[in-house]
Design goal:
alpha/beta; Rossmann fold; eight-stranded mixed sheet; five-stranded antiparallel sheet; 35% helix; globular; binds S-adenosyl-L-homocysteine
Length: 367
């Protein structure tokens, strides 16, 4: 049939061969299929792309993250060599802005080796171009596990929301895995596994036993979060995770598709749309902290950036800007609390080795 994306053909082929496909498998294929995956084939960022992220909104974001890292490095005892690791660096903009900002702490700048963890060859090429001439050695990896061990500061902005999410749906008979099938009209459609997931209710918080039929629960594998925790523990370092999501594990569907800055049906145009789901910070923190590190937050992005001094930075940039109103707009986007802004929806969590103390921005919030 005309109009089917190459990946839709592959999804249909697999469903026809093996039966309905779990949501996480569908999401992984759509985003990361080696040939046709959304992230593998394109750079989706920016005003002309499908979505825009905080580092692409303003240089202030990466600069403040850099200064956060320089303070944490001092709290770590200023190790002579430190890995600055970023998971899913997109265009490399945040790292570039961070490295420029930390030039004011030359001992830190010269201690840094950058390690970028990126699966997309297209974005890796983009990162190479962005970071050319940054004055720091940069290595690329496809998994965090490949980065050499040692003192490390890890960043992840809008990384965890792209990791595949599982869904279960409540019926009178229990919680069933949600899957994707080809329906009677030949369309991709949601369905449920015929049998409930064994013992699923016992894995959920007790008050979820009152969830109504039709309720949806989402969860992710803990693999990446645990690896982050292990790194922070081994390297006596720190990690900063920024993403949209909720503070506590809850019921509700957040699996969504975005294309050209608008929401779309996640089952339409497989491989052509960004698929994400909100990050469950409670589950994430539990997995990271289980590796023996201390968690702080999550706090709202607006609060975090304010505490790091974004308003002062904006005021200083405005005095030099050709169009000061652009700075005001970027600031409003990053710390505003309305639905179109990032300040409230986005949360920030830090994880540190217990010897480090409280990282900047989390002074009054305990883990
Ligand atoms: N942090 C960037 C980009 C966010 S988009 C920014 O804020 O602008 C998500 C990024 O994560 C992309 O670079 C994508 O290719 C990468 N990515 C997603 N899943 C990944 C995985 N499992 N391993 C490595 N990189 C991944």
């Amino acid at each position: 049939m005309a109009g089917r994306s190459p990946l839709e053909i592959e999804v249909r082929r697999r469903i026809e061969a093996a039966g309905p496909m779990p949501v996480a498998e569908y999401m992984a294929l759509c985003l990361f299929d080696r040939e046709h995956g959304y992230y593998i084939t394109r750079d989706p960022l920016g005003t002309r792309g499908d979505f825009i992220t905080a580092p692409e909104v303003s240089q202030m974001f990466g600069e403040l993250i850099g200064l956060w890292a320089s303070a944490v490095w001092k709290q770590m005892g200023a190790p002579e060599n430190v890995r600055l690791i970023e998971l899913g660096p997109g265009r490399g903009t945040m790292m570039k802005d961070a490295l420029r900002a930390v030039r004011i702490v030359p001992e830190f700048h010269s201690a840094i080796v950058v390690h970028l963890v990126e699966v997309s060859p297209v974005l890796q090429a983009r990162q190479e171009a962005t970071l050319e001439g940054c004055g720091v050695t940069v290595f690329w990896h496809t998994r965090l596990g490949e980065v050499p061990k040692g003192p490390a500061i890890i960043f992840a902005n809008e990384f965890f929301d792209a990791l595949p999410v599982n869904q279960a749906i409540k019926t009178d008979r229990g919680w069933h895995e949600r899957r994707i099938q080809i329906d009677g009209n030949g369309q991709l459609a949601f369905t449920i596994a015929p049998e409930p997931l064994p013992f699923f209710q016992t894995l959920l918080p007790p008050h979820f036993s009152t969830a109504r039929p039709g309720a949806i629960f989402e969860w992710r594998a803990d693999t990446e979060a645990m690896e982050v925790g292990r790194r922070v523990a081994d390297g006596r370092g720190a990690a900063l995770v920024i993403d949209y999501g909720h503070t506590e594990t809850g019921i509700g569907e957040t699996f969504q598709a975005v294309g050209q800055h608008a929401y779309a049906d996640p089952l339409s145009s497989p491989g052509e749309l960004d698929l994400t789901a909100h990050v469950d910070f409670q589950a994430l923190s539990r997995a990271v902290e289980a590796m023996g590190v201390k968690g702080f937050g999550p706090i709202e992005q607006s609060q975090f950036l304010r505490r790091l001094g974004i308003e002062q930075r904006a005021a200083s940039l405005k005095t030099k800007a050709a169009r000061p109103s652009d700075i005001d707009q970027a600031l409003a986007r990053l710390i505003g609390r309305e639905r179109t802004a990032m300040g409230e929806l986005f949360k920030v969590a830090a994880f540190v080795h217990p010897s480090i103390g409280t990282p900047p921005g989390f002074e009054t919030s305990t883990g």
